[in-house]
Model the fold of this input.
Amino acid sequence: MGANMSRRFVQLDFHCLFLALFFALVTSPNTAQAHLVTSGAGPFFDGVAHFFVSLDDLLVVVALSLLSGLLGKTAARGLVLVLPLAWFVGMVLGLYLSDQIEGSAWATAFTLLVGGFLLSFSPKLPTWGMATVAGLIGLVHGSWNGAAMKATETSAIASLGIVTSAGIVALLLSATAVSIQQSWQKIAMRVIGSWVAAFGLLALAWHFRPNV
Done:
């Protein structure tokens, strides 16, 4: 009986965590004016703070990093190089195309769905395939960040904080995933992917919910 109660409490904890994270994701302001964070420590750290409190940005990097690590050292190295660069290029594009990008917050939710599904199924992507996925997703998230910076007149230095944070997280998590050997650890990585995909799916549903 005690073991059954323990399992129930664990399941309850996971459900509460899921609901809390999803609530934070879908209720975070989706307008560009509120998308960037002010830390009070300067524009660079504003960018760092933004990355770590924006679940759509953070979770997609987590999913891609773990996936690349499971694919091997070459794929992980490619991700660490391509993702921050694509993110930066996307931010530059966002600064100049902010009018076209504004209102497309659903795109970042869609990338969560894609990244989560890829990690959960862990297909044997070639190195160029992993790099392509990372590049496209980096462009999407970077362009949304750039549009937010343009709307809030945030210093361009904040972009360095965002890109640096994305690169460091990608480096650490991909290196961790490369070192994984046990099958149960790989299964745990795929479970994380399914949760990220669930966040993306629910966030998409939230974005396209009918207005009543």
